[in-house]
Design a protein that fits this description.
Blueprint: E1 5-7, E2 10-12, E3 18-23, E4 33-39, E5 46-52, E6 58-60, E7 68-73, E8 78-83, E9 92-98, E10 117-118, E11 122-126
Length: 128
């Protein structure tokens, strides 16, 4: 399995919007999650959002709920993270993560250890 590939990062001002994409390579016909995580300098990698391929169920970190949305295009094996009303604290490297083992009975989308295939990340900087 090839690692997912993120794109769409950049520099924006507070209040602006930005959309990230994650190109994945399989698993769209299973109910595995695709997660978005971020890491700021000096901090650990934290969960941001996730979506399940089959059900489309979505999950969000409390501080981004209502501002961020996550969607998917099964035909393109791509997941999107739409980020609105961005704040300085949203700054960080954003990573997309997927799951290789599609046979588990359940997955916890907000946990780092759920995922075993990670992209290289894309930088998002929110600053005036």
């Amino acid at each position: 399995q090839v690692q997912p590939v993120e794109s769409g990062g950049g520099w924006v001002q507070p209040g602006d919007s930005l959309s990230l994409s994650c190109a994945t390579f399989g698993g769209t016909d299973t109910n595995i999650p695709v997660g978005w995580f971020r890491q700021s300098p000096g901090k650990g990698r934290e969960f941001v959002a996730a979506i399940f391929w089959s059900t489309g169920a979505t999950f969000f970190k409390d501080s981004v709920r209502g501002r961020f949305t996550v969607s998917k295009d099964n035909a393109k094996s791509t997941v999107y993270l739409q980020m609105n009303s961005l704040k300085a604290e949203d700054t960080g490297v954003y990573y997309c993560a997927t799951v290789k083992d599609t046979t588990k009975p359940y997955y916890i989308p907000a946990e780092l250890k759920t995922y075993d295939s990670w992209g290289r990340g894309t930088q998002v900087t929110v600053s005036s």
